[in-house]
Amino acid sequence: MNRLTILSAVFMTAAVASGVAFADDMSGMKMNSGAMSPAPASGNAAMTDAVVKHIDVSDDMITLKHGALANVGMPAMTMAFKAKDVSMLNEVKEGDNVRVRVENVNGALTIVKLAKR
Ligand SMILES: [Cu+2]
User: Fold this and answer.
1) Domain ranges of the chain
2) Could you tell me the distance, in angstroms and rounded to a whole number, from the CA of residue 59 to the centre of ligand 1?
3) CATH code at 43-116
4) Ligand 1 centroid from CA 9, angstroms
5) In this structure, are residues 80 and 94 in contact, taking their beta carbons and an 8 Å threshold?
6) What's the 109 CA to ligand 1 centre distance in angstroms?
7) What is the 1 CA–ligand 1 centroid distance (Å)?
8) Which residues are within 8 A (CB) of 32 and not within 5 positions of it... i.e. 6 or more apart?
């Protein structure tokens, strides 16, 4: 073995080791997401099942009982969200089953898409 062979062997080992670590991370993420939404997460447009619990017209807020929101790292819970469009407040009523897309908009968790199901 010359020095070059030894060097490349070291690099190969490092690459394999980091590859294994990466695979472990990915399987961990898979286990944490999608508990309530059976549809596969399709990139940035993934929607999550939720139920409308309360609508606050004065604050443009909608309280949802939501499934896991993988893109903002949140497990299932009930909480209030900002509505991106005021029209959303009129499109649904308390008790409606909906699908939502929540994103962090300027630091505020915001419903950017809302659809009845
Ligand atoms: Cu939440």
Assistant:
1) 1-32, 43-116
2) 18
3) 2.40.50.320
4) 47
5) no
6) 9
7) 57
8) 68, 70
Q: How far is CA 107 from CA 35, 89, 93, 100, in A?
A: 25, 21, 26, 18
- CA nearest neighbour of 79 among 87, 69, 88, 89: 69
- CA–CA distance, 81 with 115 (Å, rounded to integer): 15
Compute, in angstroms, the gap from residue 30 CA to the centroid of ligand 1: 19
Each residue's pLDDT, cut to its tens digit, for the chain (117 residues) gives: 567 766 666 666 665 555 544 444 544 454 544 445 444 444 567 999 999 999 999 999 999 999 999 999 999 999 999 999 999 999 999 999 999 999 999 999 999 999 999
Place of tokens 């089953």: 97
